[in-house]
Amino acid sequence: MPSRVPSRVPADGEVVVRLTDVRKDFGDCTALDGVSLEIRAGEAVAVMGPSGSGKSTLLNLVSGLDRPSAGSVVVGGEDLGALGEKGLALFRRHRVGMVFQFFHLLDDLPALDNVALVGQLDGLGARAARQRATELLEGLGIADRGDVHPASLSGGERQRVAVARALMNRPALLLADEPTGALDTRSGEAVVELLTDLHALGQTLVLVTHDARLAERCASRVVEVVDGRIAGARAVRRDR
Amino acid sequence: MRAVWTASRAAVARRRLQTFVLAAVVLVCSATAVVTLGLMAAVSGPFDRVYNAANGAHVMAEFDSSKATAARIARTARASGVEASAGPYPVAVLRRPTDQGGPFGLPGVFTVVGRDRPDTAVDTMKVFSGRWATHPGEIVLDMPQGFGGARLIDQETHVLAPGGVDLKVVGYATSVSDSAGGWVTPAQARDLGAASTQMMYRFRDAGSQAALTADMAVVTAGLPSGSLTGTGSYLTLKEHLATGPNTYVPFLTGFGLLGLIAAVLIVGSVVSGAVVAGYRHIGVLKALGFTPDQVTAVYLVMVTVPAVIGCAVGAAVGSVLGTHLVRGAFWGISGNALVAGKASVPAWVYPVVLIGMPVLVVLSALLPAVKARRLPAARAISAGGVQQTGRAPAVQRRLGGSRLPRPVSLGLGWPFARPGRTALTLSTIVLGVTTATLAIGLAASVLTFDRTQEQQDSVQVTVAVGNPAAPSHPAGPVHTDEQLLAGLRALPGAAHVSADAPLQTRMAGSADAVRMDVRTGDTTALHPDLVRGRWVSGPGEVVADSTFWHQQGLSLGRRVVLRDAAGRQVVETVVGEQTDGWDLTSTDWNRFVGLNSTRRATEFSVGLAKGADAHAYAAAARRLDPGLRPSLNTGVGPIEQAVISVISTLALLLVGVSALGVFNAVVLSTRERRKDIGVLKAVGMTPRQVVAMVVTATAALGVAGGAVGVPAGMLAHRIVLPLIGHGTGRDLPASMLHVWDAPLLVLPALSGVALAVLGALLPSVRASRASAAEVLRTE
Ligand SMILES: Nc1ncnc2c1ncn2[C@@H]1O[C@H](COP(=O)(O)OP(=O)(O)OP(=O)(O)O)[C@@H](O)[C@H]1O
Ligand SMILES: [Mg+2]
Predict the structure, then answer these.
(1) What is the pLDDT of residues B719-743, one digit of tens each?
(2) A154 C-alpha to center of ligand 2: Å?
(3) Ligand 1 binding pocket mutation candidate from A57, A101, A207 (most atoms within 8 A of CB)
(4) pLDDT digits (tens, 9 = 90+) for A72-111
(5) Could you tell me the keywords of this UniProt record (chain A) (predicted)?
(6) Which domains does chain A have, with CATH numbers?
(7) With an 8 Å Cβ cutoff, are A108 and B777 in contact?
């Protein structure tokens, strides 16, 4: 259970992500076409769809890892199209946290430093950064694994370290691309639970998944992407 | 085989940049190898080639005409062992054109040979300006070509021989055998009182001094005893040209050797680095079903093809650069344009480089490629990544906790993650820094040597005295030497003034003329640097130049017998060894200069009072007498410039190679760390932070490389210089060794970092621009 509620949470209901008529081309291939989407603070949106439909592309646009070919992407009031490379880097650092299917931890660094790193990049002192990283790992139940290098961690542990890293700078938006895709069922369950808890604490969440059950459990809304277009959206009823 | 070829091509295509760097490194190294080998060969190569092309005399013999007739001497040409000959020619000994020292060279003995034509079987000469002397009253002078060239003959010049004989200079020619100072018709030579006869021989067996002595024994067998009065061997001439009056050949050789070693090491490290970096690819190949032999073959093809291309282009570049440098160096060394003009990189250098470099590349690739052969596929695939080894985790943890900006501390951690790669990169940087340090040290030593010889620290202004007999007929002085000395001393700013009169004399027991500098005035205040002993305290004492000291086996307190200006013998005591280049230096002006009414000072040296304006002094000196040509004693001599340009070209080449090596290493590591960099960018590392991280990773090595390379270069300088001194048979002044001061050390110390940053900048910017989304999608 996370020990702290992410602090830079926008007021509930405020629009955090607004995609307007977004297109994304890779050479001849159009990955996204005419996508418009709004995500409000406190929502947990699951993006679903067949393989190659453009889910990851969508997520990369929201996270500022990529730029749209046309249309606008506004996240947290910032028009990502207007930002330079440095601006995008700072945007990613401050506004979003990312969790990937294959963890993408730095093999050189022990788990704790993988988490602390993001704070340090922003000028946070080593001691303070490690302190916060320790708290995060504690909250995720892997405080005792802080000294261990990623190569020696289990898949589930690695993904929890990745989530801790994503939360390090208290992002307004947590983005996860197939966070359970590389995990066995049991470890996947644990990560799902973790994300559910985070959402329950108010964390805005965008989750890409193939897994309908996962979407049901974590998300308040499911967005369906097919062939680069939004094919439909539905709210998920849930007992809270 | 097709599969190997296809796989190699694919591998090259995947590593375009790396392949390009490999080719570039081999290119520059091949060029360096051609240049350095060419330079090293130039020390002896051109002499033999040029000497043989001009049929230079193996032995030049002089016979006493009163003991052996010309006809009898001519018969010696038929002695067994003689391959070709020229002569007999009558030899007259004159004073120099005027005794005042010029037009060329020093006053003293001047040999005039009566010779009917220049294109003889031995000592074949080319008249490069004007024509041959065909009538009485004409003379051709010996002159290195390019020393004024064709324009010389435009000025009417005369040589006044004793007895009022006026000889008009009609041509200039170069004799490779150094057979005479000038040539006239045989009849003219006899008129000039020729007392001896010159004969020149080329022998079938001329490999050593002993062989030449044996040859001459056969030649002179039937002659009356005592008729052979002197011989000159081409071996002495060669030695004189090769090590010469200056010290610089070994500088170049030593440096060339270092360059060669550096080139070999860097090529080795770049090639093996490329193969090691391909381990992951090797694993994939094996998984695809390539046999170990095929894997090895793929790797060899991958590096050999670009290497061969780079080598061929490099040899061509080296040929152009090398010929240029060899000529420059040889001109600087020999001062002989005939030799310098024909100097080039010897042909054998090309096959050596063209075969040697690819062989080197294959050998450096073979070791890791054979290792790759044995690597199990799974291990090889994982070996591509960054491993945790040894103390690395502890280091990373400590760095993570440091106060440094995180990109910097991340970069500092890189070298620890791959110790093998780090060692290779480090050695490349160390080589570059060592080379740069040694080059700077040698250049500083050359400059110091020049300064010491020219006494630039004590003499600020030199005042040349015009010699009306010189080709350009400058105005001569209206005052006497004493008046000039007094006048120059009286000018404002002058602290010390001395006068020089260089001349040639004979020393008993030595066949060669002795070049002597005679000084007067404030000689004690302005004396040259001494290696040992002391400066002369008065008449009867001389100091000797270091080279002359060792040639003659002198020692402190030795007596030498010289000829004074009137031709009488004088006994002088050697009291010191110095390095200003004159064989002997004396202050006995009266005896060596004053006794001969036609000799006079050719130059004055002026030491100024502290703070005096040298320009103002020079202007005042010019007004003192129209025959004075003052100049500031600053600047670098042409020989020194040639040597320094060669050293710096080589150093630049080698530093360039090192930078390429570093560049290659950084390209490899950023490639390996593509994913890490992508992740870091994804979590918010800015492009500038990425550059900082990559540059830091290399700059750390640059600092370490500087810390090792600078002392290594200083050590090399310390070892090389005395060796050079030893090799040239002279003692070097201590000032040549102690050239290091803080500003001079800053340069090479920074060069390590500069090298690293230079090599890292481009790949780091490339890494910072790469799309993180793209990287994370594919890795
Ligand atoms: N960098 C790229 N270059 C070229 N094509 C790309 C790139 N990224 C995505 N694509 C293409 O865009 C389309 C959408 O890809 P995307 O990765 O967004 O799909 P996805 O829905 O995430 O699929 P999956 O479920 O398999 O992860 C695909 O056809 C893919 O090939
Ligand atoms: Mg995807």
Answers:
(1) 878 877 776 667 777 777 888 888 8
(2) 22
(3) A57
(4) 999 988 999 999 989 999 999 999 999 998 889 988 889 9
(5) ATP-binding, Nucleotide-binding, Transport
(6) 15-106+151-235 (3.40.50.300)
(7) no
